[in-house]
Amino acid sequence: MNDLARTLESIPAGDLLDRADRADEPAVRAVLAKEGRDLKDLAILLSPAADRLLEEIAAASAQLTAQRFGRTILLYAPVYLSNECVNVCTYCGFRRDIDVRRATLGLAEIEAEIRFLARQGFRHLLLVTGEHPKNVDLEYLDAAVRLARSLVPSVAIEVEPLDVGGYRRLIEAGIDGVTLYQETYDRELYARYHTHGPKKRFDWRLGAPSRAAEAGIRRVGIGALLGLADWRMETIRLAAHARWLLKQYWRTHVSISFPRIREAASHFAPPFPVSDRELARMVAALRLILPDAGLVLSTREGPGMRDGLARIGITQMSAGSRTEPGGYGRPDDAEKQFMVEDTRSPAEVAERLAALGLDPVWKDWEEALHG
Length: 371
Prior knowledge:
The structure is a single chain. An 8-stranded parallel beta barrel has the order 1-3-4-5-7-8-9-10, surrounded by 7 helices. Strands 2-6 form a two-stranded antiparallel ribbon. β7 (219-223), α13 (231-248) and β8 form a beta-alpha-beta unit. The relative contact order is 0.17. The two termini are 35 Å apart. It has helices spanning 3-9, 13-20, 25-33, 39-45, 48-51, 54-69, 107-120, 138-149, 164-173, 187-193, 202-206, 208-215, 231-248, 276-289, 303-310, 346-355, 367-370; strands spanning 72-82, 88-89, 124-129, 154-158, 175-179, 194-196, 219-223, 253-257, 294-297, 316-318, 359-361. The protein is of the alpha/beta class.
């Protein structure tokens, strides 16, 4: 068990929530009035009393987001390179033990996908793969990243956990971001959901964002797959993970994603479903505890939910996404990881954000200005 794991497991998340459940509305408003907030405050924002004050919490979150980020929302798109995977994760449409259409893109196919997205306006891309040491190895990722960086200025990856050397190699190839979800911070439930394959190693996965930061990555993204465990417990541990990263690697920007489980080939029914209202409270509460963190929302959510959350704390949003390899050029030729809920085009998403008084951007940084 590494230092991060020991730190997270030392947090009495259940006790914090039990005490917070006795909080009243004045206690919630006292937290809203504070400048710096800790995990005890976060627990109060997740209490039943806070649910009755959701509009006030959302308003405070919106105000803080505007102070720290302005009205800007960065648009990005995922590029699925492969749906081959050696793991059995009970919830995933890519799990190895189900018979679905598999594909791993060659460089010419990757280029076609990226050129399609570039024509839509995207300048930030997220390269996504399953975990397959033979077909999606470090050499393959290196070549894919170098190709992507020749076409767009910002490339991040969402792939298997790597060691520090692996992350350094891909940083040299051109990545500026690493996204990796812990899925659930509950060690016992994690073992139950991940039955076969290298992803069974809870601590190795938990340490991956730290290794990416140690390698010098500019930004890391973390998250829990919502529906696998109690959302309030996950929120506290997710916040603690983000705060630990920010303390240890202050040069690295940290962002948090909010993926809710959606329909997939696995036909997995989430045992801890998260409602729209609970998701909204999670976004707002994490903004108030982590004022400088990026908050990311994907097309797993429908248009109405995305429009609403964009106004209270989201700073990054995917658009026009396909979740199968080659999906932009050849839709439905391979299995999707999950079904997309927001099927609007990137232009339609940008137009809607502008109508809401927000400022959608396709590029938010310049490498030459950051050294």
